[in-house]
What does this fold into?
Amino acid sequence: MKRPILLIIVGLVALSLIFYIEHIDILADIEEIRNNPIKERNELNQFHTNTYFFDSLVSSGKYDPAFEFINKIINNSLHSDFHDNYIFEKGKLLFNLENYENAKRVFTEAINLSDSSHLKSFVWRGYSFALLGNCDSALVDLEFAVNRNPSFQLDYDKVLGHCGD
It folds into this structure.
């Protein structure tokens, strides 16, 4: 009887840990809202609305309108706290369309705008480097991300496996 309860507890702890790791960005957003409730809530709502619409275009295969939309948003979000996130979304689309060279360039732009704190851009740029055959740069990016957030270790291991080290 004790064993099923222990398994349930272990499962709940594991789910909590997964939820925590995957939602660190949301916790940062909540903290920003706490510090500046009206401005941040409006920007956060707009960010989620924009990315939802962008993702809808992408998932339905409407890539040209998706690029048009995200470029318009990027141009209109110059003073937004989410500017680097919009640029990151554009990089993901380029990456998923296997345009790794441009994806790498766009992820670099997101990194430069965020003062090196946009760790997901390092991870995706690392994947771009790896697929372009530049394993040294790929591993440097992934190592940087892992050193700041160990939850990216699996990504590092995947690139390491891809690079044959």
Q: What stands out?
A: The longest helix spans residues 37-59. The radius of gyration is 18 Å.
